[in-house]
Amino acid sequence: MEGGAQYNPRTVEEALKDFKGRRAGMIKALTTDVEEFYQQCDPEKENLCLYGFSSEQWEVNLPAEEVPPELPEPALGINFARDGMAEKDWLALVAVHGDAWLLSISFYFGARFGFDKADRRRLFNMMNNLPTIYEVVTGVAKKKVKDKSTISNHSSNKSKSNSKAGKYSKPQVNDEDDGFDEEDDEHGDTLCGACGENYASDEFWICCDICERWFHRKCVKITPARAEHIKQYKCPSCSNKRICP
Asked: What is the pLDDT of residue 86?
């Protein structure tokens, strides 16, 4: 594998860091790097797997030759289904198997390094606080946040109008107006469509005009100056969508 030296987390915190790194790499493959990922998953090749690494990198490669392998292996043969189903469905399928693999890796480390019941519960709870790869790739995470939102239509429209500038702007409110915290909370629950991380204050974000998902500018490589001149922004996933016969 080309993702770096083997990393064996021995504490709950280290296992979580490993989980988040591998997760970020796989999300990158299925969103911002989806064109490259699609090309690498040639159905004419042998059984291929999608690997995520703690360094937040990803790789499409053949499964490990060792039997049994040193670590649990991801789903085998993801490339064979590529041309037999709609691309979004195929990516969702790969994402689901990716989530299952991440859990197996984390609990493998837990078993190997003697995590007790409390440690395993704490590790799972921390992992469960993050949206799954499937939720990020399909936009389910964004829909959940939208369903929980309690802000008014006026506030929603105001946030939408800021999408061209690629930045959330905190609304100007009077001292008596208690709606500020509600909108700020909604922004805090918003998830990046690429990395799945939450919104933080003073970060530049840009909204895709097609799928309406928000992205960190660094995740989609858009500068604030460039965002000002974009009339209709398409995220990498929407830009690379194919029309299936």
From this structure: 95
